[in-house]
Amino acid sequence: DAEITQSPRHKITETGRQVTLACHQTWNHNNMFWYRQDLGHGLRLIHYSYGVHDTNKGEVSDGYSVSRSNTEDLPLTLESAASSQTSVYFCASSGGLSNSPLHFGNGTRLTVT
Amino acid sequence: AQRVTQPEKLLSVFKGAPVELKCNYSYSGSPELFWYVQYSRQRLQLLLRHISRESIKGFTADLNKGETSFHLKKPFAQEEDSAMYYCALRGGGSNYKLTFGKGTLLTVNP
Q: What per-residue confidence (pLDDT) applies to A65?
C-alpha cells in the first residue's frame, strides 16, 4: 500500500545545530507539504512543493528550507535550530485533483534545548 | 487571503448528546472545505469534504456560503469520537495548499 513516512519520530537537538527531517511518500503525488503543529496555533504551513525542483514558502517559513530533487522526498531543514522551533512536524502529500485530500505522515516531535 | 476560524478550543459533551463543531472561513472565491480528525496517537486523517456531501461516522457538514460556515455535526456523540478536529480550506484553481483552523478538542464523556 502507498504510504507517507517521516523520520525520525522523535528528535532532541541543541540550539544552533542544523537538523533535517525526512519525508518520503510512495503515492507518486506531485504535491508535498510541511506543517508544524503547536498548541493554540493549530497547523501552520512551513513550505510546500508542487513538483520536482519546485519549492514555495508557507506562512511560517523563516528558519526552514526544503528541497525537492525527486517526486518521493521533501526533506525539511532547520538551518540553525531555535527553541521556538520545538514542535511537532507533519509532512503531507496530495494528488493533482483540486479536491484530493492530504495524506499525512505520523509526525516528528522535535525538541530544541 | 484565506482564513479559517474555529472559535472553540475545547468542547465537552456527554455520550448520546448532539455535537456541533463550528468552523467559519474567509475567502474571496469559491473555497473547498474539509474536516480532518486526529485521534490520540494517530496521524491526521480526512473525515469529510464538502464537495462529497457525505456522512462519515455519523458526521455531516454543510457549506453555508451566506454565513461562510462549515460546521461539523453529529446527532449522537460516541466516546470514540473524542479527538482533535481541524477545519481546513483550499482555494480554487491550482492552489493545492490547505489552510487549517486552530482545532477543537472534542471530549465525549460516558
A: 97
